[in-house]
Amino acid sequence: MTRPRDPIGQSGSALWNMVLRAWCTRHPPLASLARETAARTVLELAPDMTRHPRPFTLHDIGGGRPYVSCACDGTPADLIRLAHEFGHAMQVIASGPAGMPPALRETCAYLSEAVTVRGVRAEDPGLAALIGQVRAAEAAQDLGSRASRLRQALADPDRPYDYDWNYPVARILSERLSAGGEAVLHGVFHGRYGVPDLLDQGATVVGIRTDNQADP
What we know:
The chain is mostly helical. It contains seven helices and five strands. It has helices at 12-26, 31-40, 77-95, 102-123, 125-154, 166-177, 182-189, and strands at residues 42-44, 56-58, 67-69, 204-205, 208-209. Helix 5 packs across helix 6 (166-177). The chain is globular and about 45 Å long. The two termini are 28 Å apart.
C-alpha cells in the first residue's frame, strides 16, 4: 500500500493546531491536557535533516517542556507525523517524571493519530481520507514485517533489542483502546496501566501471548 503524496497546502503549525482541535472536540475531558501540551511543547518544524531525519520527541529540555522535532514536506503524512509526536508530548506531560514503557509510549502516539483522523473527518473529509491512507500503509508495515521480526525475536532470546518491536504491540493496543471511554484514555496517558492490564486474560497481540510465549 502506497502513501499519498498529494500536496495539502497546510503549514506544520496549522497541522499541529489541527491535532489540538481534534483532541479538544473528540475528547473534551482531555482538552485541558491537550492545550497544556500545545502550550508547553517546543516545536521544531525545520530540523537539520542530516542530523535529525526522523521525527522525535524529547522528554524535557528544561522547565518541564517536551521538545518535538518533525520536518514537514507538505504531504498528508505531515499530519500523521505531527499527531504521533503530539501524542508523545501529551503522554510526557501527563505521566510526568515516572516515564512509561516504550510499547505504551507508542500506544499513546497511535491513539493521538486515531483521534486526529476522527477529528479531521468532521473538519476536512478529503484530508481525512488521505491521512487514513497514510495510517493504513503504516499499519500494514507494523503488522507485517515488523510483527514478523518480533515473532522471530521471541524465539531467539539472544537477538539484540530493536525498538521497532514495540510498534506492532502498540498498533494493536491503540486500535483496541481507541473506542474506549475517557477514563481508559486518561489512565493510559497518565501511565496507570501496564501492557498486561490492557489485555484480556490469554489475549494475544499479533500472535504474542500476554505470557510472552509465541502462539503456534
